[in-house]
Description:
The complex is a heterodimer.
Chain A: H1 3-14, H2 16-25, H3 29-53, H4 68-92, H5 99-109, H6 111-123, H7 132-158, H8 162-207
Chain B: H1 2-21, E1 31-33, E2 39-41, E3 46-53, E4 67-70, E5 76-80, E6 85-89, E7 95-99, E8 101-103, E9 108-110, E10 116-119, E11 125-129, E12 134-138, E13 144-148, E14 164-169, E15 175-179, E16 186-189, E17 195-199, H2 208-216, H3 219-223, E18 233-238, E19 244-248, E20 256-259, E21 290-295, E22 301-305, E23 310-314, E24 320-325, E25 337-343, E26 346-351, E27 356-362, H4 364-377, H5 381-394, H6 399-412, H7 415-424, H8 428-479
Antiparallel strand pairs in B: 1-2, 3-27, 4-5, 5-6, 6-7, 8-9, 10-11, 11-12, 12-13, 14-15, 15-16, 16-17, 18-19, 19-20, 21-22, 22-23, 23-24, 25-26, 26-27
Helix pairs in contact in B: 4-5, 5-6, 6-7, 7-8
Amino acid sequence: MNRETVKYPFYLIVHPFNGFWDLKYEMNKKINLIISFFILFMMIVTNILSTQYSGFLVNIYNPNEMNSFLEIFYVIVPVMFFCIANWSLTTLMDGEGKFEDIFTSTCFSLTPLVIIQFPWIWISNLVSMEETAFYYFSTSFALLWFVFLLFIGNMTVHQFTPMKSIGTLFLTLIAMGFMAFLCLLFFSLIQQIISFFYVIYQEIVIRY
Amino acid sequence: MKKLLVGFVVFALIISLGPLQVEASVNAPSYNYSYWGNSVAAPDAYSADMLLTGEQWNIGGLVEPNDLFVTADQNIYVLDSGNNRIAVIDQDFQLIDTIDTFENDETSGTFANPQGIFVTEDKHIYIADTGNNRVVHLDEEYRLVDYIEKPSSELLKEDFVFQPVKVVVDNADRVYVMASGVFDGFMEFNVNGEFNTFIGANRVQVDPIDLIWKRLSTKAQRSRMVMFIPTEFTSFDINEEGFIFSTNADGGKDVIKKLNARGTDILRREGYYSPIGDIRFPIDVGPSRLIDIDITDSEVYSVLDAKQGRIFTYNGDGHLMFVFGGLGNQEGLFHTPVAIERIGDRFIVLDKALGEITVFNETEYGQTIIEANRSYYQGKEDQAFELYQKAIEMNANLEFAYTGIGKALLRQGDYKGAMENFKQSLDQKNYSKAFLLYRKEQLKDYFPTIMTLILVSVIGITGFRIIRKSRKKREGVAIE
């Protein structure tokens, strides 16, 4: 872990074309994965802290419904869904990226979200109602930056043309919807099965 | 065996004693709505005190009474529609008079199923004499002054039947009549009883699906469909400043309206929810159906929900202050409530089917909230602060009271305390105001220190850089 690796995500977000290219073809895969997981972890931390500590003027939260574990899922589940959906699609559409490449590029794309939103958790406590416009501007800017990076990352990783990667990203969204639906179906089925066996168990226990 | 017997006796005693301890008067569990839309238990603000019936005054039972009016000197006018008469009662609930006929020049007039009554400050009585299609105007001696009958106006259809249901009179003696089958708003009559105009029509509520069907259908089909017409009003009342407060059965967000002279709705809806009665209700019951409204001082108004028999009281900002009442068979509950009025801070509720009037007295909690709101309205911030504090001690979940405290603290210059209270009541607008003042104050205190620190660090860093550069140069030169 030298200085260059720590600086790399910052280099990547301002030079996405070169950055993603080097990420796939030049850099050490293992170190890439470590950085990716670190960024993902920071994203989770940012998410949890911002729901709890963001300023009152930009964030009214119900302490009864705030759950840090769920906040972890809110970050991990979409990222994993995106990676799996994207991988499943691009494998069929002649994409060159491996799952690992997709995962690292997605995580690296999250960097602007972290570096912009993390300081805002604290700054948002120091602004008035009128100044919250800056907060909303920054967060939307971070989001746009993230989408842009995701697009470039996908294009570079799979060696797609711009139009094709836009198409794939769109299809990925639909695939994510399908996955969410299947997951819900699966969990509700499991629940039904469990309750079915539980009822049988109860019946037997009460009868004998 | 003996033990068992003793046990039995004790058990029987407990059972027989049980009912004795139950009081005759009950209060339906009181509640208020939190910011998050949950109903949260609250102390009772009002409790039933007594029941008034016609038998008490030896005038026979009230038959389907429809309306109540309380004058400024606290005389109560009960419109006993089934008996076509008016009972006048003083503030101690003793009968003063009954009015069933009034002197006309030649003959004496009577009422036919009157539905609404209004009494002006100089004790002139206006009665919506529905069965006779007229509004009767009597003076303080119950002599006829004038009738308001079906107006002739090009705004009205030829076959229009004038059926006044409710009537109010403003300070300038203009008469506003709510008539059944009129969808254009209230009918405004001038001092001489001539029809002026309609004011304050409700907007048409259109179901998008119905609209699509209507667009798709042919003209012949359309002509046979139900028309989109605005809903009628269910009740109205007028306050001292001449604003008309009305209720309707739209089921939308503006079932309560405050109308100015032009008929524009100017009700403040700054509370956590629009004032619509219950915001949580069983699906089979549906939203509240508000059928009467009463306005008192300090812009406080109460509405009566016919569906669940509850009375909701809101302050001028639209915050729900308290709820009481309900449907049932015990004292303090109603069968078919039709009208509410206030005598001072007490409430009277008229039950149409039972012909009874229930009198509610405020509890200490209710008194505190009302007084707190009144003090704030009158600008007595310190008193409001103390009363709100007291209200919170009795009910820590009364969220809007924290705003009251916050506003008082803000006025006193305790910005930090104000911020904390606005945070409690989840009031971002006021929080921001307090925060700006707090930030200014803090910056004023720390500005010199902060500026010195920044200046010193800037000088320090640049100095350090210059030194390092020159040293590197020298070293570089040395190596070469």
